[in-house]
Amino acid sequence: MRDLYQRLGVSPQANDEELKQAVARCPNSALRQDAEAVFGVATHRESYHQSLEALNDIGQLRARLGLTHGAHWQGDVANDFSRPPDQAVSRHDELVDRVSHAVTLYNRLRGRRGLWLLIAAFGIGTGIGIVVGFALSRTFAA
Fold it and tell me: Where exactly are the transmembrane stretches of this chain (predicted)?
């Protein structure tokens, strides 16, 4: 299926008069016949719009997956709905990166557990020593 709007050089929001002028200017007789058949009847145009939306969605999905046509298809009918590769990061990849980062941080913290235990034991021991020393100094001072 061809993208008739693209082939005629008009937007999908074009009114009937713009479509008639574009069809009349079209040098390709087969394309002109297809356009007259699709755009000449309102129900055909509505069905074409639904198909066009579905094909555009498929083209975007193919681009997101990195599936584009090779050079030998460029400019052909099969390439009407092809899109350039999409460089956006998918939600799944973003979540995988975040979880991987969290796991890395957890592993670092876990690897330094002995150091943290030593610091905690030293801090607790120092705190207890200060409290006992303060209590003893008050006892002997009285």
Answer: 115-136
